[in-house]
Amino acid sequence: MVTLLNENYHVCTGCALLCDDIEVVTGSGRITEVKTACRKGVARMKGCSEPMSPTVDGQEVDIDNAIGAAAGILSNARSPLVFGLGNSTNMAQKKAIELAKRIGAVIDDTSSFCQGPTLEAIFNENIRSTTLDDVRNKADVIVYWGADASNSHPRHFSKYSYFPRGQERQRGWEEDRIMITIDIRRSHTAKISGDKFYQIPLQADAEFIDALIDALSGKVPKVSFGFDIKRILELANILKKARFGTIFVGLGLVYSIDNMDPVVKLMDKLNEMSNFHLIPMVGHYNMRGFNQNLFNETGYLNRVKFEKGDSTDVQHGAEFSIVETLNNKAADAALVIGSDPLSSLPRVIAEHLLNIPVITIDPCETFTSRKAKVTIPSALSGVECGGSAIRMDGVEVKFEPIIETNRPPDEEILTRIMEAL
Amino acid sequence: MEFGKFLAAPEYKVTIVTYRDIFQSAVMEGSRFSEEYLKLSAVIRMDAGDIKKLGVKEGDTAVVRNDSGKVIVRVGSSGYDASHQGIAYMPNSPWSNVLLSADTGGSGVPRYKGIEAVVSSAKGESVTGVDGFLENTMKH
Ligand code: SF4
């Protein structure tokens, strides 16, 4: 558990780095200035320009009516879908899982089409992970693989991985740390790596991993694309000598492989000769929390279907992913919490949401909310409501509200929907 | 009558890789309906040589389409020194998502980083607006 270093510090919920050193200035019920956060964090904490209102069928109503209408839709649904929750607190997520059980819903989150496989391997202890605090204090070799932290988690380098001094890394990036980037393009992150950037072709990650394993095993590596073999040997040599290595896995790698086997194989090989860990670059601030909470409850981290009235009957599989559920037109109502599938999913798949009643719970208007039957505004985590969340490395972070609002937190809305069922 | 009208605009096949951009993500926190979000999202970043082949300039509009859908976005340069002919980049956004296939082979994971599409000039046409996404279909 993270304890804030300074009582004036707040936590940013802009991404799963959950930076815990944010100072703010408030005035007339709003945050007017945000210090220390990155661009995205500042924008998140200042709030959006299109706050959501409670509506039913596009008409503004009071929140009680919106909650009543939501309960009505979910009671009548034969196969409801509950989706989102990456921007909700742990307590709200647990409530949503309880609700999904009550109504016999499919429940899924964005991990289903992003970092799910990585987290699954970590939860099942197939891959060794570590904390960001240990990375800051000990890591001498860090690898960004298919990850562009400069754009996805802008303070990753400065707070934990590359730039800071740490207990065993008193000389920081200048002498004590090596940063490697493996990617298909020279991203901003790749530029920071300088000559330790390894550019590989699209979809070539598995082949590159094989070559790297060969090099680590003392064999001559081979690849079918043009690549200087000496550089693969040089990379293997750096990894071999690492005293505390960490690979940060981004979507570039996850999307390029069919399953985690190549990564598990590489990690096993690395750990025969050095000391390596892996941390997924989780996006939404509490996606990992949702995965952990559902895993604790069911043994699965996403893509779950509960049988109505039978809390022990849990099904799991790709057919219960949001993508296949919508593809198969298998949902007849959807409850979307803190997410915008109409914007983040393939359009042809998300279009099914336009044919079924959708309820959105969110602080702000989204593409999905503009087409929803019921919208229920909620408090913005970390700014308007407190709670706890799981950072990308599995560490729990607690936060308090900074400003007051009359919009209820997700958890309260979900509790009230359950009461009204 | 303009003779050029009868000549089909050159089409160019690309594989699109989506990526995240901090400026676009920050603007999205403020409003995903804003002009600024559209400006930072509705863009395809191409190899300088490919842009020439299309017969367009940076800032011109282009149609990007495949069996899944069609969007009009602005053409930008990727800014990479190394040539990457045939590979184009789009920020992850509703605009790039129009081009994603529903077929995931049952895996539940769309192919966000390897979208096959065709690009051609859309001179004079404007970028697909946010309202397009609120319509019932974007398959044209
Ligand atoms: S890196 Fe993430 S958590 Fe830190 S300030 Fe930026 S958005 Fe917030």
Key traits:
heterodimer; A: 421 residues; alpha/beta; Dimethylsulfoxide Reductase, domain 2; 9-stranded mixed beta sheet; 5-stranded parallel beta sheet; 18 strands; B: 140 residues; Barwin-like endoglucanases; 5 helices; 6 strands; 22% helix; 27% strand; disordered N terminus; binds iron/sulfur cluster
Description:
The complex is a heterodimer of chains A (421) and B (140). Chain A is an alpha/beta fold. Chain A has 19 helices and 18 strands. In chain A, the strands form 4 sheets. A 9-stranded mixed sheet of chain A has the order 4-3-16-15-14-5-6-12-13, covered by helices on one side. In chain A, helix 2 (63-76) crosses helix 19, helix 3 (90-103) crosses helix 14 and helix 3 (90-103) runs parallel beside helix 19. The longest helix of chain A is centred in the first third of the chain and has 14 residues, at 63-76. The model of chain A has no long low-confidence stretch (mean pLDDT 96). Chain B has 140 residues and is α/β, with parallel strands linked by helices. Chain B has a single domain, classed as Barwin-like endoglucanases, CATH 2.40.40. Helices cover 22% and strands 27% of the residues of chain B. Chain B contains 5 helices and 6 strands; from the N terminus they run E-H-H-E-H-E-E-E-H-E-H. In chain B, strands 2-4-3-6-1-5 form a 6-stranded mixed sheet. In chain B, strand 3 and strand 4 (70-77) form a beta hairpin. At the A-B interface, helix 1, helix 6, helix 15, helix 16 and helix 17 of A face strand 1 and helix 1 of B. Residues 12, 14-15, 17-19, 37-38, 40-41, 153-155 of chain A line the site of iron/sulfur cluster.
